[in-house]
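Course assignment 3, question 2. Fill in each field.
Student: A.L.
Task: Predict the tertiary structure for the chain below.
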Amino acid sequence: MEVIISKDKQELGKKAAEKGASLIRKAILENGEANIIVATGASQFEMLTELVKEDIDWSKVTAFHLDEYIGIPDTHPASFRKYLKERFATIVPLKKFNYVNGDIDPKEECERLKKLINNISIDVTFLGIGENSHIAFNDPPADFETKEPYLVVQLDAACRQQQLGEGWFSTIDDVPMQAISMSVSQIMKSKAIICSVPDERKAKAIKKTVDSPVSPMVPSSILKEHKATWLYLDKSSASLL
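Answer field:
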């Protein structure tokens, strides 16, 4: 895992987007197409702003959705489908975007997504790290063993508090208790991982990620076992390193 520290989140976003774009272009050049996974949340704002500006033949790119709350419609301010449509999927002319639908039976949705992604090689995963060190919605202790690509997960208190703190919900009671999340094993299958993590509130999680032994109690620590992961930080998120 390579750690890149930028002066601020704007520089972080630009560097992460440039690296991700170069990997997408490389995949298209070598294979005629590219498959990517796209994350959401406040940590991805700057990166996505820059990524959509990159010179990429998006008509050759298929994207997969990382996670989604169970039980909220895609019109809800916190919906990750809404987020991705507004900040990415309707801005660039993708070949296809495979959304996670949290409005239908979650087990059936996991099976549907499994059929879509099972035989797909993912070229680039764009990722964040939560304040509790989660990746996607794999809160600690994360399941490192399952081979299922998508799971129904319970959101822990720290995760739900983060969603409230970022302004997606009015009260803690409004934050869903469950989500559909891409599994850790599926994330780790990606050929390359671009992990963007700005802000001081993520500094403790970053220190754990970098300094702790690999453990389900620090889900993001497993990224150290991936051979092509770039961790993009700003001075604030890197302040405890």
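Instructor remarks: The helical segments are 9-31, 45-51, 80-89, 106-117, 157-165, 184-188, 203-211. The CA atoms of residues 84 and 90 lie 8 Å apart.
Grade: pending
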